[in-house]
Structure formats: structure tokens, C-alpha cells
Amino acid sequence: MPATLLDRLWSAHEILQRDDGTSLLWVDRHLVHEGSHHAFANLAARGASVSAPSLTFGVVDHYAPTRNRDRGMPPQISRMIETLRTNTKQHGLQLFDLDDPRQGIVHVIGPEQGLTLPGLLINCGDSHTSTHGAFGALAFGIGATQVAHVLATQTIWQRKPLAMRIMVEGTLGPGVTAKDIALNWIATLGTGGAQGHAVEYAGSAITGLSMEGRMTLCNLSIEGGARFGMIAPDETTMAYVKGRPFAPRGDAWEKAVEAWATLKSDDQAEFARTAHFDAADIAPTVTWGTSPEQAVPVNASIPDPAHLPDQRAEAAKTALDYMGLSAGQPIAGTPVDQVFIGSCTNGRIEDLRAASAVLAGRRAKVPGLVSPGSARVKAQAEQEGLDRIFTEAGLEWAESGCSLCVGMNGDVVAPGERCASSTNRNFRGRQGRGARTHLMSPAMVAAAAVTGQISDVRQLLDRRAA
Amino acid sequence: MMAGWTRHKGRTVVLPLDHVDTDQLIPARFMSVPRSEGYGDYLLHDLRRDETGDLHPAFPLNREDGISILVAGHHFGTGSSREAAVYALVDAGIRAVVAPSFGDIFAGNAVNNGLLPARIDPEHAALLAELLGDGAADTHIDLERRQIAHGETVLPFELDESWRTKLINGWDDIDLTLQHAAAIDRFRNNRSQTASWAWPAAAD
Ligand code: SF4
Fold first, then answer.
1. Is some CB atom of chain A closer than 8 A to the CB atom of B53?
2. Contact B174 A94 (CB under 8 A)
3. Is B89 a domain residue?
4. Is the pTM of this model over 0.80?
5. What is the ipTM metric for this complex?
6. A76, A105, B108, B119: most buried by Cβ count inside 10 Å?
7. Is residue B180 part of a domain?
């Protein structure tokens, strides 16, 4: 029978299946962070230990301060970090601590360190674990009770989702990125568009993406309701993985490459759902509301709730009210108060390069923060001189962490302020109580910084080319 | 660890909102609090309370004390894996949320904490909302029958069979899984031989 990539990954990890159809799956990598404290407490309460310490890695990211790390931090934040130190130490887990050159956002450092590989099952207590699917891995976010379960047993109970394929063919226009592919499909299919499905991305526009772009795309799968996003591994994947610190070497590498070559969907494989997109139709895309599906091309207008179907209309009205925007108004030209570049969605080197290409030789009209996805990304960016471009433009160059993606470390947007952001969620209050978030690509964030308003980055790039 | 349940009668209110995401259920700034201190006060904090922390009297959950069942809109609990969203509901005394659809990580987390995510037909949800109106009233939930009743009106809800069993028995997955220890060991040994590349190179 023809199989999908999902079928192959699933059967490679299935230990057994219960009568009710739920599978017990083997977990190859488990990543924990400060937020995993509930799970460790749960483990302690039952006196259990970690089943496979060498497969579990910890990192400080969700609460990591992005400024003045040496100058002390608020007690609730240092307590969270201390708790993770104590827990990882007690269970003999490797921790990438604040001062470790490998520290960074969990979904950035996993791939960077070669902990993320094709063919693995990867879990982490963060919904954007789907990021790692970019390598052809089965990767999904789990809750605290499940984190405790993985710690105690190195397995997870999961019901197999349906397979869905999103095909994107053709070539992306200049200034259009993986972020735009993602926001575009979510706007088209809705946040429930892929619910209950594992999404495999395929087509020439996908294979044309770098690993960074593929990670951005898989990262955002969860915003379209899919818990899994995945892309079959190819040459680009191998080239990225080879030589990474934890990646297989020598003989093991040869065996791995052989195994990874089989990780793809057969031509005849059947998908429960397929959606097609043409890359040429995709414009830089921006959210106007409080859900990632509330997004439009930058050259379009904010939709009128009156023209939306009932269920979306009500949500649109509430969102416009919260965002302080009016229906029918063009999204471009909306003034912003600040910008943010970073997060596991768009905090990688390629993202910083794209943003700095727009910012080079220009001044930002509004303040903003740039937090690289990892300490390594930070070091590389500094080597390339990107930090100078950001600071000369007037933006703040900070340390790596989740920062303004989630507002846990004290970086927040003030009530009523509008932020152009390269993150993944524009939920009410995500960046701080009353904060108004517009999601877009890093290049688009840079364009917003330069003009002080939501702008089509293509115009700034054109002027540059001329 | 957690107590199972089969039937629950409780004060019920309608939360007429779609997309109540996990960031609404508990804003991130409260998540560093140890669970032992209780998460109930943070439930829907920024919708329920004004800037000074006072309760908005008109917000459904603030109508009376002791509310244990919520009837909500589409995509309840959409968003993140933060189980604290479920802790906030459970610590506030909520036993069941009835809605046309749920965020799937949220629903799994709910069941792991004894909270019922009852999926109900959108038309039935609308009917229930109409019957309950702006007040609070008693409803009865029966897990065996997968039904919610308000007076004479009895409506079915959907709930995955394995989730129902877990809720009724108060089962903990770890105990269940450990019964399969031998199969897990076999799998692990086999994988370490056939896919040794799957182990981190620099570890051990
Ligand atoms: S950057 Fe945001 S989405 Fe990514 S791991 Fe951190 S909190 Fe989660």
C-alpha cells in the first residue's frame, strides 16, 4: 500500500496500539524549558525518575532576560530559572544554561545542535514544537502532564492524525517569504483549517526553501490547527544537518542518510485533504486582528465584518475593536509604536539578514527590539556586522530568548501600543495586557520600523535596487 | 492521583465567545506561580478583571460563586500547550466546558486533569445558550450517557472513548504505560540496533 511520510514516521515509532486506536509512541528527543516545572513537580510527587536522561535536553529560554543578564533579575524569573537548574541537575539532564554559548530558543537550538534529525519523534512542552517537522521528523507540542509522562517513560500516547498535504508550486516573488506562505494558507483555510491533521508541505516552492524557511513554515502549522507540520528531507536537509555537534558521524551518518532517503510520501499516497497554492499569488502578508487567520496581503484592506460569514464576522468585530482599527481601511499605512524581531518563528540568521537588508543605511522611526533566536545566531550575526546595522538604525540588539513572543521575561508591549512583530501569535494580550500585535515577516517588520507604519517591503527593496 | 467522576450537577453559565485561546485563559505573566498556590484567580484574568484587578460584574463567570460548567463558543482553548490554562479552570472549580470545538492540545490536557471538554453540536450549543440566557442555572452532566441536561432538555455531546474512560476512572497515563514496560524495553533495544543514528552523538 502506498504510504505517506506520516505513515512511515508513525510506524517507525509505534510500540503498540490500544483497542481504542491510541498508539504508544517512542520519543527520540525530549526538550524541556523553565515552563516544564509543573511536570518535574508531578514526577517528584510520584517519586519517579527520568527514564532516558541522555535523550532529554533542557534550555533556558521562556524566561531568559534579554538585557543585563549579569545585573540580577526579578525574583519570580530567577526562581523559574533556578528551578530548571535544580531539576535538570537532579535528573542528570544536559542543560544549556543562560551563559552557555549554545543557549537559545528551544526550537532554534534543537536543529542548530543537531539534536533535531530527520526520522525522529520530538516532543517539547511548547506548541511550536511542530518547527522540527521541517527535517522530516514527527514533532509536536505537549502539555505538562504529558511532559511528566515522557520524562517517566520516554513514550507518549497519541492518536494518529489524518494526513493533509499543502502543495505550494512556483516561485515566491521578491520580498515574499515562508512566513507569508504560512499566514496566507492560514488566512485562506482558517485557524481550524488543518485541525486533526498532520500537514505535509510539498511542491517546488517548498523544496526551494532553505531550512530556516522550512522551519518558519512548520512552526506556524499549529496556528492553522495542525499539531504537526512536516517536510520530506532532501539534499538541503542533509547539508544542514551534517557536522552539527549531536548529529551522527562516520558509519552512523551513512546509515542515517540511507534511512532518511526513505522518508517521503509515495506518489500514489492518499491524503485526507489536499490544498493547492501558487507561490506567485502570495504577497507579503500581515495580520490585522487577534487570530492568525485574520490576515491580508499588505496591499489589501481590512475586511468588513459585514461581508464575512457569521462566525467570522462576530470575531472580526471584536478583534477590530481591540486592535483599534476600522473595517475597509487599507492595512498599509497603519502607524506602529514599536517593532520586534525574534522568536522561534523568525529569529534565525536568515531572518536577521532579511531584516538588516532593509534596514541597512536607514533609520528606524520607532523603537524596537531585536532578539536573536540563539546565542549562536547572535554571534554569527555579529560576525557579519548585522548587529551594527540594527543599532545604527536605532533598534536595540539584545540577548536570545522567547522575549516578546510571550512576554514572560518582562519584555512586554504597553497597553494600547501597536507592535509590528515577527512572532507567531497575535492573541489578545499575548505581548502584554492590551498590546496590539501585527504578525509579519522580519523584512516586513524592518519596513515598518523604517517608515513607522505597516508598509509593503517590496517598495523599499525596489528603491534600494534602483 | 486524580479522582474519577461519572455524573456532575453544577451551576452553569454561557461564555458567548469564540476563540477563547490559552493566552486569555491564563495570561503568561502568572505562569511562574507554583501550582500549590492555586491558579483560580488568574482564570480569564484580563477579561474578567479591570486594570486594578477588580471583577467586572457583567462578566459571565462573575455572576455568582460556585460556577462549575461553562458553555462556550468555537475553538475553546485554541493556542498553546500551556497546561496552566487547564489548571486555572480546574482551580476555579470548573469541571466541564461544553463547546462546539476545542484546541486539541487543550482538550487532551483537560482530560489529564479531570476536566471534561464536551464537544457539542453547534445548534445544540446555541439552544443551550438560549435556555441559559444571561443568568446561571443548574445543568446535569452524565459521562456514561454522554449527555448534558437542563430541565427537560437533554442534549448529547461527543467525547473520545479513551478520554471518557480516563475521566470516569481518574486514570493516570503513567500507571497505564508502565504496564507495558516490557514492550517499551523491546522497542528501545530494537531501535538502538536498527537506528543507532537516532541517539545523540555526543551524549554519554
Ligand atoms: S519563541 Fe514563543 S513560540 Fe517559540 S518557544 Fe518561545 S514562547 Fe514558544
1. no
2. no
3. yes
4. yes
5. 0.93
6. A105
7. no
